[in-house]
Amino acid sequence: MSVQQLSIFLENQPGRLAEVMEALARADINIRALSLADTSDFGVLRLLTDQPEAARKTLREQGFRAQLTEVVAVEVPDRPGALSRVLSAFYGAGVNVEYMYAFVGRSPGGAVLVFRLSDPQLAARVLVPELGRLVPAAELET
Hints:
The chain is an alpha+beta fold. The protein has helices at residues 16-26, 52-61, 82-93, 120-126, 137-141, and strands at residues 3-11, 31-38, 42-49, 65-77, 97-104, 110-117, 133-134.
């Protein structure tokens, strides 16, 4: 069970991030989670939105380099060691975490972790209920 994440490549210049947000706002697209990583020349903005395809189309029409990527969203209990246990299960199965980010507030008592993984299907098989729950895209889009 995967989720569509939008990755946008931005020049590291004042106003570029604001332009993305303005374009999405005009298209009535809601952002559910985001991560921004930068270098001296460019940044990679990763978004979960309520309308991934429409967001990609909107941004491409505005001249942004945007692509959709499959990621896995995992809800874990909001308590010490929860992330460690999930990562240990992935490691034990030989699944590499390419990157991740998290957000809270979507589930009572829990946090949602977004993972880009080397083998999402294998990761889903080792994710037992005691560790966490895969979050379907429909839950993130509402």
